[in-house]
Amino acid sequence: MTDIDETYASLRDAYAERRPASRAAYARARRWLPGGETRSVTHYGPFPAAILRGHAATLTDADGIEYLDLVNNYTSLVHGNAHPRIVEAVQSAVAEGSAFAAVHPTQLDLAEEIAERVESIELVRFTNSGSEASALAARIARQATGRRALIVASEGYHGGVPPFSDADEPDVIRVPFGDDAALAEALTTDVAAVFLEPFLGAGGVIPAPDGYLAAAQLAAHRVGALFVLDEVQALRNHPHGTQAALGLSPDLTLMAKIIGGGLAIGAVGGRAGLMELTAATRPGHLSHAGTFNGHVAAAAAGLASLRMLDAQAIALLNGRAEALADAVAAEATTAGADAVMTRAGSILNLHPVVDGATVTDAGAHAAWRGALHLALMGSGVYTTPRGMINLSTALTDADMARVVEAYGEALAKVGPAA
Ligand SMILES: Cc1ncc(COP(=O)(O)O)c(C=O)c1O
Questions:
Q1: Cα of 130 from ligand 1 centre, angstroms
Q2: Ligand 1: which atom is nearest the Cα of residue 134?
Q3: Which of 48, 112, 334, 371 is the 20 to 30 Å CA partner of 38?
Q4: Are residues 143 and 198 in the same domain?
């Protein structure tokens, strides 16, 4: 065994020993759920901590261990857990009936809030998730252009349902993120749309190279294809969406996570002429169904969440994230563990640096990432196994200092990746 394998093994033992109740919860989960989970990303070894409750920035697991929450359900809880205003909004909504087969004023309030924030959005269509939003945007793009092919980044992520869930989906062309030439080569008149994130989210929180997205938008339009920007993660980083910061005007924008305030939601927004393709008033319209589309409780939670996420809150989050990235880099140097935090707004990802190169592939140096994850859990900080973290407005300055300290401890325990 190498040093890092040994460190990882001993961290797994220490982790398991402190968590008998989580171990029992995992055994029960395996009885009823394949692999003991119902969402691939929530699994990690030796077994996941069973989180029972979350309040503000604190999570509590089945063994009574508390963690500072830096996962925030993968960027959806921008105000932390159980924010009183969001709880109140949900309770008031469900007390009046949870969802109806009808349009509800709260859906309209949320659509209006979104359209007022994001300049390129004239009309909004709600779904139950970001994945469904991606799928709907693909259908709109295909209907609008009469073409089938879709271009995405090889390292990009637009959700867990077709046409984007698997690497071998038909009519989906994958090109390396940030590579103008590869995109230009793939962009033929068979292409219905180019789907891109402003930064690779699940792909390691890697911002696009300067000018790449504006050039991609232009190149797509040049061949009559749509430009679809996936702001499912990125919307939180700028008061008018990351597209405003980058000077983009996408035809369609994908949203989810923060627009539901912690409840299940997704949305496609965009130019009226395109969005109208789904209008039931239109002969031969693109039918878009879903029992819970625009769920009133999710819309109420999302509205409360967005209204609290003003320019000041966003500036605070982004500033804290920048300071955190710098502080963790300094801790890594002190600990002799070569590592960097990549960052986009208030979303960050720790990566090992090996032979002078940042390794962003989460599958490489898996023992290092796994060890660091368990070491951080041991120091009371809840992060994702792949190293992504994100900030919520529930975190205090004292919490941020504790986070830096925890990274220092964890990096000292784990050391360099190779
Ligand atoms: C950029 C991006 N697009 C789409 C999705 C899919 O959203 P959901 O998990 O709500 O289906 C995600 C989820 O992480 C995402 O990060």
A1: 5
A2: 4
A3: 371
A4: yes
pLDDT tens-digit series, residues 360-417: 999 999 999 999 999 999 999 999 999 999 999 999 999 999 999 999 999 999 999 9
- Whether 399 and 373 share a structural domain: yes
**Taking CB atoms and a 6 Å cutoff, what residues make up the pocket around ligand 1?**
74, 129-131, 134, 157-159, 197, 201-202, 230, 232-233, 256, 266
Instruction: Count CB-CB contacts under 10 A for residue 100.
Output: 11
- Choose the residue to mutate in 75, 78, 131, 252 for probing ligand 1, maximizing ligand atoms within 8 Å of C-beta: 131
Cα-to-centroid distance, 257 and ligand 1 (Å): 8
Residue 240's CB is within 10 A of a number of other CB atoms, namely: 14
Amino acid at 187: L
- Compute the distance between CA of residue 178 and CA of residue 168 in angstroms, rounded to an integer: 21
Task: Tell how far the Cα of 416 is from the centroid of ligand 1, in angstroms.
Answer: 31
| Residue 11, domain extent | 3-78+312-414
60 shares its domain with 11 = yes
Same domain, 267 and 335: no
pLDDT digits (tens, 9 = 90+) for 141-177: 999 999 999 999 999 999 999 999 988 889 999 999 9
State the residue for tokens 């980058």. Answer: 246
- Total structural domains within the chain: 2
